[in-house]
Amino acid sequence: MDMTIQLGVNIDHIATLRQARGESYPDTLEAARTLLALGADYIVIHVRHDRRHMQETDLKRLCDAFASKIHLEMAPSDDMIDLALKHKPGSVCLVPEYPNELTTSGGLKIEEKDKADLKQKINILKKAGIRVSLFVDPKANAVRTAYNLGADIVELCTKDYSKAKTEKQAQALLSELSLCSLLGRELNLEVHSGHGLNYNNVRDVALIDAMQCLNIGFSIIARSVFVGLPQALLEMRNLINRE
Description:
47% helix, 8 strands, globular, 243 residues
């Protein structure tokens, strides 16, 4: 088993705190700089249509400083594709986005009629040197669709796993994640997972053999309120290390 697994840290809620008071701080660039210096592999941000937390100015500043380390989550809409092409993060993750949702509600639901348009958008991004991930539910057909559309990365949604009520449910969902991770590896996709992972449930996902990167945000930022950002990151890193 590969003993390393990468960690992308989502810093949206640094911006949430800033927006709550309309201040210039806490600064997302300072947060990114701190996390990368401490060993985060990627900085994840979601620029939503409603701009509830991250703004285009955040994306610009972060890409100007650390473009290859910025992983932009965004809806697969024309205006967001244009935004990515303008600022050129190292990678993007195409996610579903709905009005008034509290957070991302699950993986992309890719209809047959939408595949040609989505494939074209993926090709446009890749030609600009931007790696492309699709955020999907952990189902074999969704992983195959990501491959067929030309994605470089598949990110498996762990929402259902993170909300499992019993150990039996959790184990069944872990099996789905494991099987889809193996399929992704067989298809030469880079395999990520994320959504709802925290200090109590992340370990088993990190131990999935074919898993290459975990994208985690809210739990790390919430923990940092009590122990500070460096300690919160260290605690998570220790949990996901395969030792």
